[in-house]
């Protein structure tokens, strides 16, 4: 269970998110604008922030940039617009996810669970271990049965993104945008080629990289 700060000038939106979050056992604090959010983050620690972009006094992007000067808290941005520019700018300043209103509260909570899990793994664990596969996040080194593996930077980035989204199906488009970046004009073959290279690099632990037919791939560690 984790602590969420919900920032939105619409009370109904805050109430919906709070209801679903508390039903799942999480703790929720509310703020009605960006300035209030900054003050709450100075006073308290949060595991994740849900923040609207368009708010009075101070918008969500400006607020989050100010919060990040002092604290490393992951954020999911909400917007009534689905503008590509907003998404691009958001990811450039370090947001973790972006949801367009109206949204499904259940999907929102699922996304928050992924964000918090990924952030906790990255921050708390210097090494991710899956049987004999070890990923040293600080050193950016991968070991297979205690032997260092030589791989390209993109192979490494792809492996880390898959592993920190453990057991979640990821589309090829999602992998392209998150691993290669939104300014990369690639296609499905780019992802498939790197997946093939990555599977060869991690040898027997290729079993963790599962093809999801019609979608993409997932890092599946379940028996």
TrEMBL record:
Residues 125-221 form the OmpR/PhoB-type domain. Residues 3-116 form the Response regulatory domain. It comes from Anaerosphaera multitolerans. GO terms for molecular function: phosphorelay response regulator activity; transcription cis-regulatory region binding. Residues 125-221 bind DNA. GO terms for cellular component: cytosol; protein-DNA complex. The modification 4-aspartylphosphate is found at residue 52. Keywords: DNA-binding, Phosphoprotein, Transcription, Transcription regulation, Two-component regulatory system. One of its GO terms (biological process) is regulation of DNA-templated transcription. SUPFAM superfamilies: CheY-like. Pfam families: Response_reg, Trans_reg_C. PANTHER family: DNA-BINDING DUAL MASTER TRANSCRIPTIONAL REGULATOR RPAA, REGULATOR OF RPOS. This is DNA-binding response regulator. Signal peptide: none annotated. InterPro entries: CheY-like_superfamily, OmpR/PhoB-type_DNA-bd, Sig_transdc_resp-reg_receiver, WalR-like, WH-like_DNA-bd_sf.
């Amino acid at each position: 269970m984790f602590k969420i700060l919900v920032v939105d000038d619409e009370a109904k939106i805050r109430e919906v998110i709070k209801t679903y979050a508390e039903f799942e056992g999480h703790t929720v604090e509310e703020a009605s604008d960006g300035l209030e959010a900054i003050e709450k983050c100075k006073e308290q620690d949060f595991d994740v922030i849900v923040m609207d972009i368009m708010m009075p006094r101070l918008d969500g992007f400006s607020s989050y940039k100010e919060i990040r000067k002092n604290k490393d808290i992951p954020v999911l941005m909400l917007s009534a617009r689905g503008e590509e520019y907003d998404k691009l700018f958001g990811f450039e300043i370090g947001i973790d996810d972006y949801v367009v209103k109206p949204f499904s509260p259940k999907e929102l909570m699922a996304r928050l669970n992924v964000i918090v899990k990924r952030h906790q793994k990255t921050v708390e664990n210097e090494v991710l271990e899956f049987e004999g596969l070890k990923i040293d996040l600080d050193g950016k080194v991968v070991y297979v049965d205690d032997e260092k593996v030589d791989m390209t930077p993109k192979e490494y980035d792809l492996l880390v993104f898959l592993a920190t989204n453990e057991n979640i199906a990821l589309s090829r488009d999602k992998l392209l945008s998150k691993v290669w970046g939104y300014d990369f004009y690639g296609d499905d073959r780019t992802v498939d080629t790197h997946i093939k290279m990555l599977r060869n690099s991690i040898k027997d632990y290729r079993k963790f990289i599962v093809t999801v037919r019609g979608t993409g791939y997932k890092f599946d560690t379940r028996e």
